[in-house]
Amino acid sequence: MSRIGVFVCHCGENISATVDVAKVAEEASKLPGVVHSVDYKYMCSDPGQTLVKEAIKEHNLTGVVVAACSPRMHEPTFRKACAQAGLNPYLSEMANVREHCSWVHEKSEQTTQKAFDVVRTMVSKASNNAALEPIKVPVTKRALVVGGGVAGIQAALDIANTGHKVILVERSPSIGGHMAQLSETFPTLDCSQCILTPRMVEVAQHPNITLYTHSEVESVDGFIGNFHVKIRKKARSLDEDLCTGCGLCTTKCPQKKIPSEFEQLLGTRPAIYTPFPQAVPNKPVIDRDNCTFYKTGKCKICEIVCPTKAIRFDQEDTILEVEIGAIVLATGFDVKHSDFFPEYGKGKYKDVIDGLQFERLASASGPTQGMIRRPSDGQIPKKIVFIACAGSRDPAKGIEYCSKICCMYTAKHAMLYKHKVHDGEAHVFYMDIRAGGKMYEEFVRRAIVEDHVNYTRGRVSTIYELDGKLIVKGADTLLGAQSVEIEADMVVLATAGVASEGSEDLAQKMHVSYDQHKFFAEAHPKLKPVETNTGGIFLAGACQTTRDIPDSVAMASGAAVKVAALFSSDLLTREPIVARVNRIPGPSHSTCVGCFLCQPVCPYQAIEREDIKDRAGNIIKSLARINEGLCQGCGTCVALCRSKSIDLLGYTDNQMHGEVLSVLEEAFV
Amino acid sequence: MSSASNHEIHVDNSLSGLILKHTEVPVQKCYQCGKCSAGCPVVSEMDYPPSLILRMLQTGLPEMEEKVLRSYSIWLCLSCEQCISRCPMEIDIPKMMDYLRQVSYKKKMVNPRAKNIVRFHKAFLDSIRTTGRLSEFGLTVDYKLRSLKMMQDLTLVPSMISRGKLGFIPEMIKGTKEMAKIFAKTTGLKSEEEK
Amino acid sequence: MKLGIYPGCSLTGSARDYNESVFAIAKACDIQLEQVPDWNCCGATAAHNMNKELSLSLPARILAQAEKAGLTDIVIPCAACYSRLMVTQHELNNDPVLKNRISEIIEMDFKGTTNILNVVQMIDLYVSPVLKEKIVKNFSHKVACYYGCLMVRPYKVLQYDQHEDPQGMDNVIRLLGGTAIDWGYKVECCGAGLTMSKTEIVGMLSGKIVKDAARRGAQAIVVACPMCHSNLDMRRPAINEYIGEKMDIPVIYITQAIGLALGIDEKTLGLQRHFVPVKMAEYIPPVPESKKQKAKEPTNTI
Amino acid sequence: MEQFEPKLVAFVCNWCTYAGADLTGTSRIKYATNVRIIRFPCTGRIDFMLISKAFANGADGVIVSGCHPNDCHYTSGNFHARRRWMSFNAMLTFMGIDPDRIIFSWVSAAEGAKWADVVNQSVEQIRKLGPFTEYQKLVQSGIEEENFNG
Ligand SMILES: Cc1cc2nc3c(=O)[nH]c(=O)nc-3n(C[C@H](O)[C@H](O)[C@H](O)COP(=O)(O)OP(=O)(O)OC[C@H]3O[C@@H](n4cnc5c(N)ncnc54)[C@H](O)[C@@H]3O)c2cc1C
Ligand SMILES: Cc1cc2nc3c(=O)[nH]c(=O)nc-3n(C[C@H](O)[C@H](O)[C@H](O)COP(=O)(O)OP(=O)(O)OC[C@H]3O[C@@H](n4cnc5c(N)ncnc54)[C@H](O)[C@@H]3O)c2cc1C
Ligand code: SF4
Ligand code: SF4
Ligand code: SF4
Ligand code: SF4
Ligand code: SF4
Ligand code: SF4
Ligand code: SF4
Ligand code: SF4
Taking CB atoms and an 8 Å cutoff, what residues of chain A touch C187? Predict the structure, then answer.
């Protein structure tokens, strides 16, 4: 007979406000197998844990049920406490009476009844628990970083500096991400490229970092410590070892008028190109969709002029296969473009641009050499209207969240403009100014007070064009929603930041969760912001939500430490939640009939064939066997096996049937 | 997160609560961005721009609610739907205005400057109640009588007639009885309408 | 090709010209238009301003009449009626309880299955495909297509995705050989509902529209709604008063533009009924006095 | 008359729906008390026998919920689960269980509000169907199964 201790937590008042915890503890003490039952204010606190430890010793407990918060919160805490008291940690269970009960119901008898039902169910499970030993698996000490923006760069460098190997995969031809496109950065107004490019070069030269640009992750198999990753290296159409980056080909290519992605379509580039002069690696790539040779079979000028004969028109994509221990996702974000907004012309007006386009106009290396010129006619605008929250906080047509960075970059844009065009007028339409950060509020104030940027609280209803001017119709809600009409020369929309293209696809390849906006989901909003729900995969930067550079870099270093911690030992301890095919003594060895229907359903190829031989070496029988290193404990095989020969430790048939029976045991209130 | 937006909005006895109950327009969702006012074609004539009407309702203060019901704005709204088509929160202001007008009318709080608008609407409805279709001539005359604005538009009449744009004899539909029933059922007592 | 038609009150009165041109081009393109039997007024702005159930019952009766007559597709030339009927069908189809209640009021079975078309949709579907071969004279004018509010909004109900910059009429004009300008007041309201009770406001709203079209060099404003037409055409004195200048820009219906291109004579199209004479060839748009002319100063409303 | 309060058991996966239901809690969104959650590693682990056992022991309805298609933490567990349920449906009818008593849903870790909706709607749905009384047949077939399993 099991000897179970039940501990009911008040969680301050989080549970006790709606659940009669004393009654739950009292009723629980009457359950079969329960020898000890108490309630306590904060179970996870030190004294709370001590309570558990002492009870284990005092009452010689064989199982522990803590009725408190979600096991996703404190299961490890109480398992550890049990282990310290000498009880196998897998003999402890948590009954979730907070997230699944006290927080979602009003104070009532039903709520208390439900809490008790949950406790009873977990007592039943605990009494069917068996002691388990954690599984140890080897760790491949090589990390993969996906995405080479500032977050990916930081993570790669930090991991590499702990002495471990890193592979950095970047989709575009150069690393740098959005930060490489920025002119100057808030709140210090230092030049973005000046601080970023040295880091980019560091990546390229680091002995522990292998850089694959113009590449993407093709597939990911395996699990924490043991991922098997395929990387598609897209054809650059040149031999990277031969190319010296002299750039001759790019200057001679006759296709010169292709809108440049890096310049946000405000500038042009040739068909063979590097996205920007400081690109890393500084080796061009041929854009086959726009190259004359690929389209017509004629040209090859680049091949002719290349001094090192590096051009390879027939190059194909290559697939690399690598073993990886941990992955950092740093694929960043995108912005909605100005052609998204129906009431602002849907891209019809050339002089309505988005924030990234403004960055390029303001950048000394941009298409206008840092002069603010409007795209339509190259004139210097005398009046610019900046519209904040364009598409953000707009559940009707955009997204409901606040993009967090645009208040700041709008203030920056207005300021940069005023610094460059002294007699210019800068108007900002905003709803709230969100400038929470060190020196952020001060920065916005400076724009308003020192640089005379005119802030109007209200949204713009529409923009239309008249005689080369953009008529912006807004309202001033601080003046009783009075109409404000401005004839502007240019309009800059602080467009919403959204998940980067292909995020959903990548998340599915990685088996990480993502939120409804396709940003990758962290494991816990407060306590595990850089972890994902999938062991060994971490997040850095704006791929989790839009964020600015300091936050992205901090998060990247956080992710790097998580990777380093994982690589700090040779063996990884894993939860022993694995499947097992039964083995019984005697000639039949197992109830397994060797149908192997289970084999194809296992997502991890963990089911192997074991041949049972007689003394003479003849095969008598083939049985299924689970490779515990590979099995991740999904239980699919268990539900599938018709002869019920497989069981899942921690979720055995016995345990689950017991739970179902006991959950329905007593009449509901 | 979206999960937060699922919380039920509390319905109380304030005017905004009634609006929510009768029209499902969630006044409390308005975050005062002013986009509706910025695009409203008649805002310059209104005593309170649409977003201000929403703000006044949000306060739940009886004196504010009274101001709203006595406002000229609610009668000026053209139901052009510009505001809702651009409102980030998709707050159906025209629908809310319809409701406010009905309450204002019932409570006899119609703004003096809006009396003619009400007269016109009533003349219009009376015109179709009896004939099923609108007699533009009858409507004009009826409205003139109600509003005592005899001279306004009178100059138009001869030129409309000469262009064949105004018929004297109202067209009658066959289903006039049905029409009368519809009016009786939706507007309650006939006599009240007659008044 | 047979379609139902709901003319609405104004097409039998002040918008007779519109009615005539709709039927004229329909005839030219072999479209038979059959009136919804014994139709009634849709209630327009007045009904929904004053009484919600009434505002749903009146259109519901019209639709039920069409259903009874077996008219599966009906065209509604008046944008105001179009909007009322679309909204009614949408609301009732999304609320079975309300649907029952209204069916009881009108004492008719209302199914809500009618395919409702506005004039531009009818043109798109049945006129445009045959236009090329039928055009005898290019409509080579530069015009401003004015949609107003009710043809495009509420855009979620009307399923109009280009509600900020509609292109339906613009495309037709291009097909006819004309030019459609880009301008600022395409979907701004003309003040329809206040035409009688607040004429000065209509003068302002319509005035802004007329002024913007004229100063951008349009030779005519093209409309598809009798309300828009009467406000921009018949209310020209109020408009001129608001602008402080006499505006001569004519206002024609899209159906009249098509009719002209098809060689139908002006009288059949009802052009003689307009208040502002339709002499597009002779009409020269005014040159804006100064390019830098200030837009009206923002008005303080408190 | 007193309102019938159905008993529902929810079989949910650990990674998506369990976490989603946690989020419902952290967001303090209220829902009906009629449901009891049982945690599985994956919907792939959920066996029909467990579902029929729930019915045999007094459940009026069962919710099965896991990750959205393509989002399975274990790549494909939810696919296998879905495939098996196809054939399960026929079996249910055979056993006299109205298939409407089982609600399949996808609730991700980010969909706290959806979980509340799913529970409330399911409770309503089962309330309409009334108490589940055809135990007898089930218990028998359950016993048969158990005998078969040895
Ligand atoms: C207009 C504007 C102005 C800004 N100004 C400032 C400022 O002044 N100060 C400040 O602190 N912040 C500013 N920011 C914010 C700043 O840009 C971000 O904080 C920063 O870029 C986030 O870095 P990241 O590495 O997370 O993402 P990103 O910079 O977006 O980098 C992501 C990288 O991943 C790559 N990638 C994407 N998908 C894949 C894939 N599937 N496989 C491989 N690679 C992939 C991309 O190509 C890219 O290189 C501004 C943002 C904008 C839009
Ligand atoms: C009213 C309020 C409500 C909040 N609500 C939320 C919320 O709902 N959600 C949220 O995310 N955040 C919230 N926060 C913010 C949250 O409290 C902080 O983010 C968090 O506490 C920061 O943690 P910390 O460890 O950096 O600092 P602290 O919590 O301040 O911890 C610093 C520790 O260092 C010790 N210490 C200080 N100096 C020394 C020294 N010289 N030597 C040794 N020890 C020292 C202190 O005694 C203290 O224990 C709230 C903050 C406030 C004030
Ligand atoms: S154990 Fe969980 S429920 Fe109890 S006090 Fe700690 S957090 Fe709260
Ligand atoms: S010319 Fe040749 S070596 Fe020079 S950049 Fe081009 S490919 Fe490289
Ligand atoms: S072959 Fe293509 S890339 Fe090379 S020079 Fe010609 S167009 Fe440019
Ligand atoms: S950061 Fe500012 S501009 Fe951007 S969405 Fe949030 S409030 Fe709007
Ligand atoms: S474990 Fe089950 S499914 Fe797998 S081979 Fe054995 S009998 Fe077949
Ligand atoms: S539980 Fe079964 S199916 Fe799942 S990973 Fe393990 S062996 Fe494979
Ligand atoms: S546009 Fe919508 S949210 Fe903004 S003030 Fe108007 S009603 Fe409120
Ligand atoms: S519907 Fe009314 S409030 Fe809204 S924009 Fe039109 S006139 Fe203004």
Answer: none
